[in-house]
Amino acid sequence: MLAALLRMAAPAAAQDTGGAFTGQNPWAVAAPTAPPVAVAPAMALGTPLSVSGGPWVPAEVLFFSAGRVVADYAWRDSVRARRGHLYTAADLQRDVQDLMTLGRFTSLTPAVYAIPGTAVPSEFTSISVSTNQVRVVFDVIEKVVEAPKVQIVTPPTAVGGVLLTPTAWRGAGRHENPGMALDINAAYFIGRLYGKNSYPDSPRKTNYIDRIGLWTLTADGKMQIQSESKVRPAVAVGGQAMLMFRDSPQPTVTAPGVSVKIDTKNTKVLTDGYFVASKKLGPVRTSAGVMQGTIGNLAANLSEFLTPEALRFYTRDTHGTQVISRTVPFASAFYLIKPDYPVGIEVMKFNGAARKPVLINFKLGRFLKMNFDLALLKYQGGYDVLGFFQFRYNHFPKR
Question: Residue 231 CB: number of other CB atoms within 10 A?
Answer without folding.
Answer: 6
